[in-house]
Amino acid sequence: MNYDIIAMIPAMTPPPGQTSNFDDPESMQTLVMVVAVSTMSLTLIVVTVRIYTKAVILSNMGIEDYFAILAACGIVAWDSTFLHDSLKGASRHFWDVRAIDVPYLAYMNYLGEILYAVTMWAAKCSIMLQLKRIFCSGQSRDYIFWSIHGLLFVNTAYNTAALFSFIFQCSPREKAWNVLLEGQCINVAAAGVVSGAVNLFLDLGILVVPLLAICHLQMPLKRKIGTSAVFGVGILTCGIAVLGVVLRVPMLYDPDLSWILTKVGIWTMVEYFGTIVIGCMPSFPRFFLYIRGEATPGLSVSGPKASTGKTLADSWPSAPRKIKQFGDEEVGVAITTDDASFMELEHVRKNQNMYLHNT
Asked: Transmembrane residues, as ranges (predicted)?
């Protein structure tokens, strides 16, 4: 068959009232480009602030920071793959896509599914390990400890299963991007909906656990509200995850796959950014203090371990946790945060710069 004839065959029959348009079709390509470039740039900025704060200002990198770096690399790789797919024509209606282009576009989508599982796992592990470092001591085994470990288990177990499900979604594997091959495939659309639902559950856990822990701290209400506000950014991520699930549902029945997947992909880029921001937010106050000259590198009592080798939770072993006293003055829980240990014990005293070590 002549190549020119094959090139004019659409990936699906146009619906009534529509005709295939390969030259100047309706497309979301511009929107994909704007969102991809914006989210990748902002992701690199917030992760750079986090790593600079931990590595330079505090000289105290933790394993959660390396997970954040891995997640940032995954986000750039996924966004770049999705953008490339869009530039090749994937952001059109399916009847405006040439059938001859479908195998390549499907292969790029296959790679994106694999990247998604790895990237989302790393991003959420970064947040959960950070919460563990902040709220859990080496000895404590309270509900906060088990809640965080439960979230870590669900995140790792599900994304490991999802990774292998996406890799081996078809038998033979090549059928994932070549529909002409004989074989069988799992319902990838249903797997996508389940993935969105599981991530919504994890986002809710990441939001609720720190708020519950803060509620049980004995500190002024104003401090609680200020501290909760940083973690409260997770509300936005939960909202993003809800819409992500809603956008995935049409994959179960709508044959216009390229259009639906483009909508899901755009929102996935937003979801990635929202997730990475949650883990980086606690670094920003400390970073801005440093930029304004109000913080000195290395001076922090609230890193993963102070000079005594104890975490913040070790300093407050009992529940409800108490605010320490220094003479007749109260030692407040100040929102001079760093990424490793959010609620920093700091003695606020006029004309003095005294830092109390955890004991």
From this structure: 31-53, 65-84, 104-123, 143-168, 188-213, 225-246, 266-284
The tally of domains found in the chain comes to: 1
Q: What tens digit of pLDDT does each residue of 116-156 get?
A: 999 999 999 999 998 888 888 666 678 888 999 999 999 99
CATH number at residue 35: 1.20.1070
H-assigned helices in 62-176:
63-85, 102-135, 143-167
- Give me the domain span that covers residue 277: 26-283
Tokens coding 141: 């085994």
Contact partners, residue 106, CB within 8 Å, separation at least 6: 176, 177, 178, 179
Give residue 119's pLDDT.
96
Question: Which of 141-150, 281-290, 338-347 is predicted least confidently?
Answer: 338-347
Residue 339 domain-assigned (yes or no): no
| 310 pLDDT above the threshold of 80 | no
Q: Assess contact for 333 and 302: CB atoms under 8 A.
A: no
pLDDT value, residue 325: 33
Q: Which residue has the tokens 């549902």?
A: 249
Q: 299 with 59: CB under 8 angstroms?
A: no
Terminal CA-CA length for the chain: 80
Within-domain flag for 294: no
Residue 102 lies in a domain: yes
Q: Tokens at residue 230, please?
A: 């940083």
Token pair for 306: 């102070």
Phi/psi for 325 (5° steps) reads -115, 145
Task: Estimate the crossing angle of helix 29-52 against helix 283-291, to 10 degrees.
Answer: 70
Which tens digit of pLDDT belongs to each residue from 175-233?
Answer: 999 988 999 999 999 999 999 999 999 999 988 888 888 877 767 777 767 667 667 77
Q: Is 139 helix (H, G, I), strand (E, B) or coil?
A: coil
β-pair type (329-330, 333-334): unpaired
pLDDT > 90 in the chain, percent: 53
CB atoms within 10 A of CB 134: 25
Closest of 280, 196, 282, 278 to residue 237, by C-alpha: 278
